[in-house]
Write a structure and sequence with these properties.
By secondary structure, the chain is mostly helical. The chain is 52% helix and 10% strand.
Length: 127
């Protein structure tokens, strides 16, 4: 059995899956089928994943093996993650209450820093 084709060998356009066939019972199912998950990855992305897994996920080691930078490894991994789970890439919108809570916490943190700085200044003045 040959490898699954991703693109037309003549014009290089993306191929569509329009039929599945069971060799045991000789049933064919025709239609337009979407690719999902790992089947969407290119050969290059598969090779990257093989190296990534062999390196136990250590990005520095992957970068060394592929003779590239660690930031390139991170970018390639983000690209593959986006393909495999696009819904996780969307950051949920914060509710107004959550944003307000974040603002209050930031103000408290800033105020706490001011108090500590003032206390440190007072210690310097006392000495």
């Amino acid at each position: 059995m040959s490898k699954k084709l991703k693109e037309c060998p003549f014009c290089k356009s993306a191929l569509e899956i329009t039929e599945y066939h069971c060799p045991d019972c000789d049933i064919s199912i025709k239609g337009k089928f979407e690719e999902e998950g790992f089947s969407q990855l290119t050969a290059e992305q598969w090779e990257f994943l093989k190296v990534y897994v062999c390196c136990d996920g250590y990005k520095i080691e992957v970068a060394d093996r592929l003779k590239t930078s660690e930031s390139s490894v991170k970018a390639k991994l983000a690209e593959i993650t986006k393909i495999l789970s696009p819904q996780t890439q969307e950051k949920p919108e914060r509710s107004p209450a959550m944003s307000e809570s974040r603002n209050v916490l930031n103000e408290l943190s800033n105020r706490k820093q001011e108090i500590v700085l003032n206390e440190l200044r007072n210690l310097d003045d006392d000495q």
